[in-house]
């Protein structure tokens, strides 16, 4: 069987007629000019276009994987270091021998306050920072602040730990808002690169059909959270391979503990003040912190080198050009949208449940009954359950949209009711398998919650002009919930479970009410995004066919940036495409040539 000839012949290869090609045209210096500079006769435009967009799609997948891996490494390092630091600083002997009367518990309390209190103000500056730096660079800067927090642990003093904790608290909401925005934009780009022929037929300024990117968004959110939930397991590696060798067993640490689970009060009441059998050497601590610092630096390089831009440069200019005052106000104006108001209880519950898994379930039920040396394995069970169950978010491809979110809420409801009536006995290992199963199942509910909420926001708000505002609001409410958990850490376990239960029921009911409103056709009120006001009147801004025009502006058909259109707060529909009336305007270059000719005449 004869082999197929290559798509493009090898340059310089002698054909069947030596220095002449098959058409009899001489090759080399004697070749006609048209043969050298003209179009290649065997050029396959359709094949080249297909290859080009395939490379673009692979680039989008690379961006998603790099962002997911960078977020996983960042949070794995942060949580692992914070956990190891708090355990070491809790031990009385370690504090007295290493730091004397420096007041390490006071420094730790102020550090936790900086991490939990600072995000309250994040709604004021997060959209401005994301628009100013851009989505990718905001991710990079936030990951760099996490690395800064890791680096300050080489020299643990008030003036290093507390300022870095405040800076980290400021970076939490911008990091998560830019991450959510980035994954949503990648799904939209993947749709554009997969359906490029339809885009060409519809025209460059026609927006894709609503919800067209939803399947890709569900897949990308499942990938992102499958990676991210592994960060809880990665955070336990310093504990498993380093700190566990220095810990006392449960008979010593739990000697004075009287009640656990639903009967407990605060966090580990009666826990022994000495948890370390021997103190780790300073050299070993420096080695562990250096490994964590190297991983944090690797996360920065992943985001910097492998994450592409979320927007084209002209789109970035448009996003900034709506005015900084408008950028500051728009997150507050989105409160008029009933969809966001109905989702606020779910945002709050999302913050409650993840912190309850790490403190209430892991400490109040786990460490209180089976000892500190098994804390790492409980959190690994939670992490693996959440990571594996993130794939269940793909059920949204076949099932109705509310199913994953409601299923996760139902699972958490059953677990919360079960925990409400369970008080494990201290220093008893027979029920340890129940704790591992409960941790894994709680991780399944967390995965359905996180993937469902992020995908839902990306589907409901697919205008690229709004996405950073929406994800900022989501993660700001989540940060407020985490702050509330921090304030109520001394409450009885029954009170914590009651608050969790009430919030969960309110969130599920409010979400189902929102879906019912959408099915009835209630139109949400959305604030109008102002038209970009470009200060630079360069070449591209003089064109009638403005390459920097956003999707929403192009649909308005140039109806003006102020009061034109259908009014403030109503979703705008795409205008029907029709033939352009009147002659096509000349570009500025042709206008300049015409002026030169007229002057010569």
UniProtKB/TrEMBL annotation:
One of its GO terms (molecular function) is Toll-like receptor binding. It is found in: Cytoplasmic vesicle, Phagosome; Endoplasmic reticulum membrane; Endosome; Lysosome. The chain crosses the membrane at residues 60-81, 111-130, 137-155, 161-183, 216-243, 285-311, 343-363, 375-398, 405-425, 469-489, 495-514. It is a multi-pass membrane protein. Keywords: Adaptive immunity, Antiviral defense, Cytoplasmic vesicle, Endoplasmic reticulum, Endosome, Glycoprotein, Immunity, Innate immunity, Lysosome, Membrane, Phosphoprotein, Transmembrane, Transmembrane helix. GO terms for cellular component: endoplasmic reticulum membrane; endosome; lysosome; phagocytic vesicle. It comes from the Eukaryota. The keyword Transcription regulation does not apply. Plays an important role in innate and adaptive immunity by regulating nucleotide-sensing Toll-like receptor (TLR) signaling. Required for the transport of a subset of TLRs (including TLR3, TLR7 and TLR9) from the endoplasmic reticulum to endolysosomes where they can engage pathogen nucleotides and activate signaling cascades. May play a role in autoreactive B-cells removal. Belongs to the unc-93 family. This is Protein unc-93 homolog B1. The gene is UNC93B1.
């Amino acid at each position: 069987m004869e082999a197929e000839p290559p798509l493009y012949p090898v340059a310089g290869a002698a054909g069947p007629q030596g220095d002449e090609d098959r058409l009899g045209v001489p090759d080399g210096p004697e070749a006609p000019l048209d043969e050298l500079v003209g179009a290649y006769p065997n050029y396959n435009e359709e094949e080249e276009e297909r290859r080009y967009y395939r490379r673009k799609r692979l680039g989008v997948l690379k961006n998603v994987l790099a962002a997911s891996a960078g977020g996983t490494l960042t949070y794995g390092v942060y949580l692992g270091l914070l956990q190891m630091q708090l355990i070491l600083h809790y031990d009385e002997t370690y504090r007295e021998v290493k730091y004397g009367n420096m007041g390490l518990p006071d420094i730790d309390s102020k550090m936790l306050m900086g991490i939990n209190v600072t995000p309250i103000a994040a709604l004021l500056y997060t959209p401005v920072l994301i628009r100013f730096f851009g989505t990718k660079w905001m991710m990079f800067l936030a990951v760099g602040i996490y690395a800064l927090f890791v680096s300050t642990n080489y020299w643990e003093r008030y003036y290093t730990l507390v300022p870095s904790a405040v800076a980290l608290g400021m970076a939490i909401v911008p990091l998560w808002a830019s991450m959510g925005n980035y994954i949503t934009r990648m799904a939209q780009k993947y749709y554009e690169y997969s359906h490029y022929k339809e885009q060409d037929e519809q025209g460059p300024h026609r927006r894709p059909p609503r919800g067209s990117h939803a399947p890709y968004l569900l897949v990308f959110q499942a990938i992102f959270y499958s990676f991210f939930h592994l960060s809880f397991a990665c955070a336990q590696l310093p504990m498993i391979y380093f700190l566990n060798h220095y810990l006392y067993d449960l008979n010593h640490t739990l000697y004075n503990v009287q009640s656990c689970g639903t009967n407990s009060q605060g966090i580990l009441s009666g826990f022994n003040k000495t948890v370390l059998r021997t103190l780790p050497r300073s050299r070993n601590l420096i080695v562990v912190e250096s490994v964590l610092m190297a991983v944090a630096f690797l996360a920065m390089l992943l985001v910097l080198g492998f994450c592409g831009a979320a927007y084209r440069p002209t789109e970035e200019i448009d996003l900034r050009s709506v005015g900084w005052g408008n950028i500051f106000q728009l997150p507050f104006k989105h409160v008029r949208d009933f969809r966001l108001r109905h989702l606020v209880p779910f945002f709050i519950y999302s913050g409650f449940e993840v912190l309850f898994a790490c403190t209430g379930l892991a400490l109040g039920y786990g460490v209180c009954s089976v000892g500190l040396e098994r804390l790492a394995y409980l959190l690994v069970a939670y992490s693996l359950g959440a990571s594996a169950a993130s794939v269940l978010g793909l059920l949204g491809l076949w099932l109705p949209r509310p199913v994953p979110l409601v299923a996760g809420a139902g699972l958490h409801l059953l677990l919360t009711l079960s925990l409400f009536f369970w008080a494990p006995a201290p220093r008893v290992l027979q029920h340890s398998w129940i704790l591992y199963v409960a941790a894994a199942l709680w991780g399944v509910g967390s995965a359905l919650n996180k993937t469902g909420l992020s995908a839902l926001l990306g589907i409901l708000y697919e205008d690229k002009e709004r996405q950073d505002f929406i994800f900022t609001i989501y993660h700001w409410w989540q940060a407020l919930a985490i702050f509330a958990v921090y304030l109520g850490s001394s409450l009885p376990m029954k009170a914590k479970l009651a608050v969790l239960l009430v919030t969960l029921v309110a969130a599920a009911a409010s979400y189902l009410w929102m879906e019912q409103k959408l099915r009835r056709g209630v139109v949400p009120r959305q604030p109008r995004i102002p038209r970009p006001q470009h200060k630079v009147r360069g070449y591209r801004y003089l064109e009638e066919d403005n390459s920097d025009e956003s999707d929403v502006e192009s649909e308005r058909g140039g109806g003006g940036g102020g009061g034109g259109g259908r009014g403030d707060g109503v979703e705008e529909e795409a205008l029907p495409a029709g033939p352009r009336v009147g002659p096509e305007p000349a570009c500025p270059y042709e206008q300049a040539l015409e002026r030169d000719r007229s002057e010569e005449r």
